[in-house]
Every structure is written in structure tokens, then in C-alpha cells.
Amino acid sequence: MKRIARFTGLTIILALLLLGSVLPALAGEPEVGESSDGIDLGAVQKAIEAKGLKWTARETSKSGLPPEQKDRLRGLKVTPRSASAGTVSPPAALRAIPYGTLDWRNVDGENWLTPVKDQGNCGSCWAFAASGSVESLVNIERNDPTIDIDLAEQHLVSGCSSAGDCGGGGPSAALDYIRSNGVPDEACFPYRAANSSCDPCPNWVERAWKISSWSWVEASLAERTEAYKWALREYGPMVVGLYAPDDMFYYASGIYEPAFPSEVGQNPNHAVLLVGYNDDERYWIIKNSWGEGWGEDGYAKVSYGVLAQCDYALLADGTDGPDIPVIPQPTVTVNPDTAGVLAQYRIAFIVQSALTVNLDTITITFPPPTTVPASIMRSAITVNGNALPVDPVVTGQSVTMIAPADIPALGQCTVVIAQIAGIRNPEVAGDYTLDVSTSQEPEAQISYPYEIGPQVTSGIQVQVLNQAGEVSPNVTIAAYSDTSQPPVAWYSPG
Predict the structure, then answer these.
(1) DSSP per residue, 270-314
(2) CA distance 358 to 403
(3) Could you tell me how far CA 111 lies from the centroid of its own chain?
(4) Smaller CB count within 10 Å for the chain: N or C?
């Protein structure tokens, strides 16, 4: 009996060991909704429901990353405040004023912010927040929301500055560097999402943007929310630090608050751009650097308390940089410019970023009343006098073509679409615009309005004399011409 018992016990132990080695293999990859950091989507959703929070969790472009990559995305390093910057705070008389709402994406009907970016697998949130504040400030200070400079975050991440790298850094040090040295545009030093040596373009100094100063926003905990709102109105978007818990990677929409008690009251670990607020629902609007696949197209609403507990806000002031070229709107010439007829279109515009032959594309999008054929031969289109290498791609109202030649930045581009392409003018006369975009500048340029005139008809009444020289009352000859049809002439007796 004892031998059997020992054998049975040994068998159980071996079976358990075998089962332990087999189960992981049988389990395979984690199921959808489960993350390797131990907080899966289901747990977050249950916590949101249990606490009655007002935000929605789902899988995002960042929620499935392994823990070490998530940690890297939160790269804010909080350092003691140096004496290199001053402080600002609202005057006492303004601290109790209700501010209502503000969203720098829609002030006077214009978006004053630059597009959302993605820091990639690099702890450079601090660099993107700092550059984003300067980019938006350029638009605001010049009262032109279309400037949208694109600064080179890689310049800050690289060995050019000591503000930080992909292991983390500080926006304060980044703004110190921008004030003293400036940062060039993205084309001068493209982003790599990796540490690098300092190797921007040779003329980066001439292309650099600087600020005259930057300041901390200072206020007590009780007055911090009102101080931040005041600063947003007075100065524009500003850098803030917040604590980004693991559940924040699942944020899809709504007003974010931490779903788990252990994630409340922590020190800030992530830098973002504060761009607005809503007093009615008591939330901030932040612009993140995790791409448009996270949150509300890269933005998030976070409750007032999320920022108030962190006491980390700084703003830039006084931008200065190279002369900003005035990019005129595309011009369109239509021939003939008559409603309802086949026409040649000549579109002339300036490319903001260089286009590479046989690589980059140009897209012309016609207004819906225009009839665009399902396909167009390449022989019907030229770009700066050059024939296309392949047939263009027609998608709905858009015609996309590959650049048949190199076009330098700020170079002239003229696209001519011949009448044989089969594009027919709108049937209704009026002023129209079309959109022009490139693979380097996907945000469309809207053309100056071009006029489509009414169909032209003309009638000629002719009196016919009889042999006696008298006007015949019974014969009328009329001539009719329509530019969309061959001329027609006829006569009708009586």
C-alpha cells in the first residue's frame, strides 16, 4: 500500500509538472482585449462601469503594446525648477471669473493647432509637447491658422540638445534649448523615434525657430484650475504634465478619469499639450503624441482633477523664425468654362514640400457637380509639361497621379488635364473650388474660386423678302448655336 501511495503521489507530481509545461503552449497568445501588463480591456470596462465614469475604453493603437514600450511612451522626467524661467499667474481680480469653454481647434471658426503626431517607440512625449506649443504659438501670434510649421522633434531628442532622449526628458529643458538655439523644421531633421547624433541639415541655424521666453504657471491647488484656464486664454496652448496610468492606453472617448484607485494622486509621468477646457462638464482638452489611432483622433478630454493634482504647466512666448513664405491658393483655368461641356483643366499651385519623381503623388479633387470619368489615360495629363509614367488612379471625384519629375520645395507645379480626359463641367453655372493635395502635404489646399458660365444659346431672326421686295409673313429662318453641340440652322414656314 505504501509503495502504491508513493507511486500515486509521484504520478500526481509528474502529471502536474507536465501539465504546467503544456498549458502555456496550449494557451497560445493572449486573447483579444488582454494586455501583457495585467490590466486587460475587460477589467478596465468593468471598473469604468462600477465607478460610473464617463469615458469609453476600447483597443487602441497603443493598448496592445508590451509593458516596456508603454513605459517608454511616458517619458516625462520631472526635475527641480531652475531659475532660467519666470512664473505667471492670473491677477487676483480675474481668478473668480467663469471662463465658459475654450477649444483652440475652433476659435473664431479656425483650428490654430498643428496636426497630431506619433512619438513612436520613443520616450519623447516631452519633445512633442514642447514643439507643439511653439508650433501653435506661431499660428496664433501671426493671426494665421494656416501656417502650421512642423518642427523637428528629432533635433531635441538627438545629441544636439541635452534636454533628453528616447529614455525620457523634460519640456522645461527643451524650451530652454529652443529659447537659446532654436529648432529647425521637420524636413531639416526628420524624426527617427530613436536616439541619434546631432546631424541636421547644414543650414539648420537659418531654418530654426526660437522663443523669447517661457514661464511656469503658478497657482495654489485651490486656484490651479482657474489659473490654467486664464493662461490658455492669455497665452495659448501650453505644456502640462499628468500621470498616465495603464488604463489610459485604452481611452477611446468621453471624459477620462483613472478607473483604479491606485492610479490616483501619482506624480506626472507624461507630457501633453493643453488646448482647451469645458466648464459645463468640467474637463480639459489635451493633444497627445500617440497618433490619431488613440483617443478622439489623438485628443482626449480629461477631468479637471487629473491636472490639478500634478502642478506641472509651462508656456512659451514670443516666437521668431525664418520668413514664412506666402503660399497662394491654387488657381484653376477651365476651357471652355461653360456649364455641362467637356473641358480642359489647368491647375497651378506651389508645393510646400519637395516631391520625388516616380514616388510622390499629386491628387486633384473636383467638386461633386463635376463629372469625372471612371478612368483616365495617362496621355491626357501632364505635370509641368511632363507626361505621366502610369495611368492616374480615379477614386470618386479625385484623380491621383504619380509625379513624373522632381519638384523642389516651394516650387511651381502645373497640372494640365486635357479635354480628352472626359471631365465635364457642372451642369449649373456658378463659382466652384477644387482641392489639391500631395503625398507630402496630405492636407488639401483649396483653390481660388473659378467660374463656370451658363450654356450659351443665340437665336437669329431673319426676315425673308419675296420677289416683290415685300416681307414674307409666312417664312421664318432661325439659327441656333450651343457650344456643347454643333451649330444648327433650320427654317419654319408660317
Answers:
(1) EEEEEEEEETTTTEEEEE-SB-TTSTBTTEEEEEHHHHHTT--EE
(2) 6
(3) 11
(4) N
Give the tens place of pLDDT for each residue, 144-203.
998 999 999 999 999 999 999 999 999 999 999 999 999 999 999 999 999 999 999 999
* 8 A C-beta contact, residue 354 and residue 201: no
Strand partners, 471: 465
**DSSP single-letter state for residue 329:** P
Higher pLDDT, 122 or 464: 122
Which helix (DSSP H) or strand (DSSP E) does residue 438 occupy?
strand 435-438
Q: d(Cα 386, Cα 383) in Å, to the nearest integer?
A: 5
Which amino acid makes up residue 73? L
Instruction: Specify the pLDDT at position 114.
Output: 96
Alpha-carbon Rg for the chain, nearest whole angstrom, is: 32
CA distance 181 to 175: 10
Q: Using CB atoms within 10 Å of the CB of residue 294, give its burial: 0 to 12 exposed, 13 to 18 middle, 19+ buried.
A: buried
pTM score: 0.66
Which DSSP symbol is given to 183?
B
297 phi, psi to nearest 5 deg: 60, 40
Query: What residues are labeled active site?
Result: 125, 270, 288
Do β-strands 238-242 and 101-103 pair in parallel, antiparallel, or remain unpaired?
unpaired
Q: Answer whether residue 356 shows pLDDT above 70.
A: yes
- Residue 155, amino acid: H
Q: How confident is the model at residue 38 (pLDDT cuts 50, 70, 90)?
A: low
Of 100, 22, 77, which Cα lies nearest the Cα of 312? 77
DSSP calls for 342-411:
B-EEEEEEE-SS-B-TTT-EEEEE--TTSB--S---GGGEEETTEEPSSPPEEETTEEEEE-SS-B-TT-
Domains in the chain and their CATH numbers? 51-320 (3.90.70.10), 331-452 (2.60.40), 455-493 (no CATH)
Phi, psi of 210 (to 5 degrees): -125, 165
* Residue whose C-alpha is closest to residue 63's, from 53, 55, 73, 54: 73
pLDDT for 463: 53
Q: Which helix (H) or strand (E) holds 12?
A: helix 2-27
Q: What pLDDT, on the 0 to 100 scale, is given for residue 323?
A: 83
297: nearest Cα among 252, 256, 257: 252
